[in-house]
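User: Sequence in, structure out. Go.
Assistant: Echoing your sequence, followed by the structure tokens.
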Amino acid sequence: MSTVSPQPETSAPAESTRATTRVGQIRARLPWLGDIARQQGALIALIIVVVFSFIRYDNFDAITINNVLNFNAQFGLIALGMTFVIMTGGIDLSVGGIAALASVVAALTSSHGFFYALTAAIITGTVVGMVNGFVVAWMRIPPFITTLATLYIVRGIALRLINDAASINLNQKSDFNTVAATTIGNFNPALPFTIPLLIIAFLIGILVLRYTRFGRNVLAVGGNPEAAQLMGLPVKRTLFLVYTLSGALTGLVGVLLAINLSGGSATEGVGWELIAIAAVVVGGTLLTGGVGSVFGTFIGVLLLGMIVEILQLENNYTIDHGGAGLNLNSFWQNVIRGIFLLVVVLLQSRLQRQRAKKTTTT
């Protein structure tokens, strides 16, 4: 009799099971990947922009990155202070005027030496910030109104200090020129002192927000001021300190402005508050307060700076390649920056609604 040999077992069920397991693992990770994309969206966008620039533009190199960091150092310092203000649910519209006033003070005191002028400018910014903080915290005037009024006041003071002139030059015997030429290390290209200053300031900001009681109070006050008050947190003092910090950092920016202009200007800084707010928002800090990231603001500053740089590089690319690129004048540059900011705000609004929905469901 013939016997029927058993058929070999097929591996199809096992492979099907493994495939189903892989799909399940991928689906389980999708929410996590989505959270990473939302939380680090600015960083991902910055990486894409940098890689695109290296591929498209022949003259995009370390010198270009150096220039972007150096040029945006002053905006970065303002945005750092603005981050803490916005995390409390406030806003500071006076930063452009404070920078202009501080630059005038630095120029007027430049005959006494750089460090004297530096101290005078930072004190000037700090005092204005203290005034903002006192009015917002203790007099309970809305931050928008308070800082808008301060903006006009400090610009008027700056003009009065230099007898209604638009600008004033540094003292010829001042050592500002020596400071302006200061570089760090023996790098190629040379590393201006403003870049390490910017990085150190943001590192300190990250540590303060993450590991200090003040940082926790800032987020608590921005999240729910009434609840923070009931918990015994120093709400008024926290508000006072964040505006003081913003003023002090902007006073330092006034010194950088005086270095760049070789003098003080009462008309500079127009619109700087909008640039700072844009960087903060792009970095993931919600305008409603309670949620924010100092590192995100740093990435937002770099991303906005890179976008401006790319628009300039694209114009040069168009000229060098016989019109093969996009010729974007200043009008279109402003339109593109505005659209970019609007998209970010819309995404933030959607993220905030999703978080609120998760909170209510849990």
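User: And one key feature?
Assistant: Residues 57 and 317 are 7 Å apart (CA to CA).
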